[in-house]
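Assemble and predict.
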Amino acid sequence: MSGRRPARRAGVVGVTLATLLSHYRRHPGQLAMLLLGLWVAGALWSSVQAINATARDSYARAEALFETRLDRIERRDGTPLSPATYAALRRDGMAVSPLVAGELTLAGSAAGEAPLRLLGIDPLTLPGTSPLARRTGDAASLRDWLLPPHRLRAAPDVADAARRDPRLPPVEVDPGLPPATLVTDIGVAQRLLGLAGPTRLVIAPEAPAELPDALMRIPARQLASPGQLADSFHLNLTAMGLLALVVGLFIVHAALGLALEQRLGLLRTLRALGVPGRTLVVALGLELLTLGLVGAGLGILGGVLLARLLLPDVAASLASLYDSHVGTRLALPWHFWLGGVAIILGGLASAGAGLLWRVARLDVLALGHAQAWRARLGGLLRRQAWAGGALIMLAAGLGGWLWLTGDRQLVAGFVMVTAALLGVTLWLPAWLAGSWRLAARLGRRRALWAWALADLQLQLPRLQLPMMALLLALATNLGVSSMVGGFRLTFLDWLDQRLLADLYLHPEAERHDALQAWLADQPEVATLLPARHAEATLLDAAAQSAAPVALFGIRPAAVLRAHWPLRLPAAERDAAWQALAAGEVFVNEQLANRYRRRPGDTLTLRGADGRRHRLSIAAIYPDYGNPRPEVVMPVARLTRVFAAPPGSLGVVLRDAPGSRRQRLDALVTRLAARFGPATAESAIDQQALKADATRVFERTFAITRALDALTLGVAALALLTTLLAQAGTRRAQLAPLWALGVSRRRLVGVQCLQLTGTALGTALLALPLGLALAWALVAVINVAAFGWRLPLHLFPLQLLVTLGLAVLVAGLAALLPAWRLWRMPPRQLLQEFAAT
Amino acid sequence: MKHLKTLLAGVLVALLAVGLWRGWHSTPEQDTARGYAGLGSAAEGYAEARPGDRLVFPADHGAHPDYRIEWWYLTANLEDAAGRPFGIQWTLFRQALAPPGATEAAPDSPWTSRQLWMAHAAVSTPDGHRAAERFARDMTPAEGPGPAGVRAAPFAAWLDDWRLAAPDGTDSGLDALTVRAAGDGFAYRLTLAAHGPRVIHGDHGFSRKSADGQGSIYYSQPFYRIAGTLTVDGEEHAVSGRAWLDREWSSQLLGPGQSGWDWFSLHLAGGAKLMAFRLRGAGRSGGDYLSGSWIAADGTVTPLDGDALRLTPLTRQTVAGRELPTAWRVQVPAQALDVRVAAVHPDQWMATTFAYWEGMVRVTDTQDGTPRGVGYLEMTGY
């Protein structure tokens, strides 16, 4: 007999499981909702993970490439080196190797497609630490490499495209290359890129070199690797993915709760028929596992598809933000798949654990009674509110500490943001319950009002989860939108600051002075803004360490002063400009943050001639988008003291009748007649330049916007799921009201008001949370990640949009149940009433 | 030493000439038939060294880009003040990657050329050895010389800062030169002055390299006195001694079935010099091919063929995982020469991309062991 027991037991589990699952046959919508929740949570999470994994793989390959391991030698003025300079350095015994780097647009590539990175190398002199140098060791391949038609090594993602370009040498696929990278012999690359000489020389970090003054050596350790730079971006993505997972799990929670609630009677019947509690738990566990596996599979599949869809945008964002290349094809390691399944099953387990617990302690005789539930919930709410309060305190404390110390730590910033989000979310039900109580007190005399609020208290257990999801989505939406909006404004300001003139000219050095004199005499020209660039070395106080800094010469004309932002109160700005004219300098925020300088401090710079200059800092200016430390001084001083070569000439047009375009064209035509077409062709219309820059920027935040919208969509879905789930119960509660004479129209109105009101209450809590999030992103996380701070822009419209979104989401979610109620025949309502 | 160079060059050529090389990769039998990676058959399109070619100086001190391979090969036996033996090697190889006209350089690119340069430098100390190699592409920038090259007059041969050249402002052919090079843990800077005439080997410079008839153009300046400074591991040594410069170029150097060579350049007591080589497997019916030059103290050259010259390995030692004959019996009966030539120490392996043994040797009388001179020995293909 004992031998037959396991078989019987398995049979019982099977029958129980079949009975339990039959519920979904009657309610396929619930099953769909459950799977949808799992799918959405899994898809968002795993798409972010897939993107991150691909990016990391790309960085790893980029770092393995020689460029990041070798010191660079460049001309201080940034112009290309000549082959003669290279040969002379070699003959002087310096183990430099020439390198050509540039961007190449393949023939036949679609318009707007990002250009590829093309590197030209000399394998004979490339320092031996480079994988590329070793790979060309085979003699036959060396000959093929050096002689026409040469060879081209291409990263796998671009090999096919490269093969189609008739200009390129025969292609060999090299999986070790970073994405979108081509490597070929230096002569070929130089011809393809139309360059006159190598863009730079590379040298092993340990090799000595005594360079002429015009050249500078940039140690490899100062060339930040793309991985470090983009870490913060991926941290942001991961946080977004985590958020999506949480929101998705809210849906699962709601759907599972409903599926249990509706099966409580069935479960009791099964228990009464003698099915042991443990068997029930096992059967339900099996049900969860099955759902989880199916959901995880769907989720990961969806995630990969989503990632494929988003990856080009992410790659574009990274390329324009950090100049680092990420493959546009997914490269997924094995642990990605396992990790995805684990995280979704884990999330499901967290949602299902409470359910299993309740089933295990199911009281056969107790009747499911919402009021009893509510009493237990009171304790739960209090505990949640306490935990939430503690988390909010933690966030506030961290925020205060970061504020006071001025120390911008990425980890502290993220802990703060997480604590704030989680804390406020936990606190939300208590806030809603409190608000309702207050509102009920205010409208005591109006029966329907009092009923509606009391009814809401009863709905709270089920409403709290979707409302939490809504809160998170709204706050994130507001915070991220504020940051992006602020970034956008600031970026446009920065473009204005840097691209102030109507026209930019880059004349050849020997024509620079003549052109400048000629332009000054032209009637269209209001102001000339000559600018020059040079390089210097920043020495620390003890001259122990040195770092390259860019020098930027400007002409502080009135129009420039008006647009050049300074981190100073308005009253002190004139004094700062006077100080600049008197011999002091401005430094950008990157330099100020990295080397801890403030106005009034001094800098010691070593110029190209080796002489040292001590300069006093008059002001700090914001310099978004510029990765390098920079020092600004009047262009005349830069030319005199640091021997800056001739640079660009900006032309600000005089205000005059006629279109700007016409006056510009007239000027350029005369310019061409006087100085030849080559000089005129160097003219760049500032508006075109700005449009280009803006377009690049808009792509930069495409991914943020996409994830934002998805999160909000998930929140709406969660709300809809919950409402649909409780629609049946709701009817039973509404039927008596109808029987008492409340019209269906009013009932629908009350329902919609209840929901939108709740959503509005949630949104009110989301506003401060979103603003705090925006502050954290802008003032803490950005500074820690990028070295510069954005001004915090508040957009009142954005706040209104957030409130509106909340109402809209709630309204949309309420629409379907309301419509069903509206269409319900009175007979059915009567039946429901009779049943209660 | 020239032999060594020849070997090296052969290896280089073999490695670099793609078409030929592929055949070598496939089956060893095929290789042998084509003569050491096809060296014997692949001269198509290149100029060929022939008996009857006449040397023209100073032009022939410069490069011969229409030939496949060429070298400027200097070795020196030195002593410090205490009489301890030192040696140096300085070699510049030129290698054509393709025959003339096969692939013309893109006219707008200074980087594309069918010529490749390689240099080896080494210092031998009484008990050790340091070596380094460098590569450069042949390029001619718009201004100034390239990173590697050779100028016939005033003579200069260089790759990076390794340089063998007439001192600035002088031009006396190859008679007065300075040489310098530096590598990991060593550096040298020396001055050379010739006290005897240039020596032309073989048939007016055509040096046969196998029984089948192919060969190279080959001349030497073996009569240098040399002095200067060596630095090894930071320690400076003032040294002086004798040096030997070889010039050789060819397009079809080796015979079929050849496995390597052993090459001697000896400074003998009394002022005579001996150049002798053995090309293993290059002789009739697979035997060795022997050849050499007896150079009297006054520079008079007597060519030596296989019957006039005997080279016999005596003892073998394991160097860099290979068995090498580090002691030899060298006999030139017509000159009553019967000497033992032995490495000063076996550790003079050139662990370069194309590896070989090149080192200083002592010459002693086979009968009574009295010192009879010094020299350099090159052994390849082991």
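The radius of gyration of chain B is 20 Å.
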